[in-house]
Structure formats: structure tokens, C-alpha cells
Amino acid sequence: MTPIIINQATLEDLETIQNIGRQTFTETFAASNSEEEMEKYLTESFNTEQVRSELTNPDSLFYIAWEEDDPVGYLKVNSGSAQTELQDETSLEIERIYVKSSHHGKKVGQLLYQQALETAQALKKIYIWLGVWEENLRAIQFYKKNGFVEFDKHIFKLGDEEQTDIMMKKVL
């Protein structure tokens, strides 16, 4: 297998982030959600203005996993006020680890997670946290394997639908 390279994303990577986000979210969640709710979520979350706003937020960082010239996944982490919930200055939120289904089982998610750990350590954070859909058993298992524990639940809106996310954290 060709080595995977992780690079920090910039505004120039906006389209790449949009494309990977739409593709991976669809691959992971389309079978479990209505077409209408999926389309609404994808339009809200990956439109140009939204992604530009996220990429230019100084409290959010994006990293893209590349296999040669092919982007195969990305990581989004948030600190401070960019965090979707806790907004604890001592924590880093992993908002997204998205990997194309063609690269599941090839350690891309692990490399992106490792980048999140390194980022948290560089920013001197005490813990990392995230929310993961209660029905995404593959992701829950991945995070448990990496030392995360459940500490709460919250509601995630997919379009107009409310779903339950398990909130997990790992003390560094």
C-alpha cells in the first residue's frame, strides 16, 4: 500500500473537504437515514460558506489524509469556542474523522486519530472528547480501542431528525 500522508488543510482545500465530507457521510449514513434528511444535512454542513467559515476559524483545524494525489479522509478538531458543546479550554474536540469506505481497515482513521492526539498535546490539552452516533458501532469500537470512555449523551440533528450521540472522552 502507498503510504498515507497527513497534511494540515488550508482554504485552498475547501473543495476537497466538501467532497470528502459529502462522500464519506453518505457512505456511512445513507442506508440508515431518509434521502431528504441526508440531503438537508449535506447541504447545510458542506455548502461553500459553511466550510469556508470552519476552515478560517482559528479554533478549528483540518487535516487531510492523502494517498498520493487522492484525498482519502480528513480530521476536524476544535478547541475553545469552536467546540460544538463543552467549550472547555482544557479540551480538544474531535468533530470528524471521516475516511472513504475504500480505505476502511487500512489504518487511515488511526493515522488521523494520531494527528488529533499530537494536536491536543501541542495545544497542551488535558483531554479529548467527541460525540459518536449510538448506532455507529464501528466508530464506537474504534474509540474504545483507543482508550475513550462514555461520559454522557447528546442530541445530534440530521436535517430535522434528532438522533442520540454517545459522548466519549480520553484523558491525556
From TrEMBL:
Classification via SUPFAM superfamilies: Acyl-CoA N-acyltransferases (Nat)
Domain of life of the native organism: Bacteria
InterPro entries registered for this protein in UniProt: Acyl_CoA_acyltransferase (IPR016181), Bact_Acetyltransf (IPR050832), GNAT_dom (IPR000182)
CDD domains tied to this protein: NAT_SF
GO molecular function: acyltransferase activity, transferring groups other than amino-acyl groups
Domain N-acetyltransferase: 4-172
UniProt keywords, alphabetically: Acyltransferase, Transferase
Pfam families assigned to the protein according to its UniProt record, in alphabetical order: Acetyltransf_1
Name by which UniProt lists this protein: Spermine/spermidine N-acetyltransferase
Source species of the chain: Chryseobacterium defluvii
